[in-house]
Amino acid sequence: MKKLLVEFIGSLVISTVLVIAAMQNSWMELSFAVGFVYMAMVYTGGHISGGHFNPAVSLAVFLRGRMSMRDLPGFVLVQFLGAALGAGLGSLCVTTKQSTGIVLNADIVAAMATELLGTFVLCFVFLNVASSRTTIGNSFYGLALGGMMVGCMLTFGKISGGAFNPALGLSLGISNISGFGNIWVHWVAEVTGSVAAAFCFVFIHGKEN
Prior knowledge:
The protein is mainly α.
């Protein structure tokens, strides 16, 4: 229960920051806000729940062999619930919205490609710095993940919305930053990126390393 609560809180905080920042700030400010908050939450909850805050990361950790099938549904559920609540809170907090929304229909292939690549890289980094026995107990995992989030959002965000996280993809729909009709673009690409990252990690390191 403690793990699920931490995952819920982290997902809620990240989603709230994403929505409020997206509605008020430039893309650079948004990227750093989300990246730094993600880094802080990873350090805050990493020793308790693993600091996933992302169904794609939880799926990759499961496929990599470091999470049981019993735990996976609970993690995914609370991550979606936290992100959905965060999107609602974020939308309520902002009365003057500068965001005009993100239209993915112009180039769905590019949006899917960037979400897939960003999710792949984020999950692959997570598996290497936060789930591998060779890096256990390190102090840099949060910096690596936060920095990767900033980099991916700055590079890919204007194309796809920069979620790299199925729960945050839902947040973008709830807050109308990206329409609900775009959620499938996020989810298909992000799940594919997660599976690919887990496969690559296992191929390189072995499932139990």
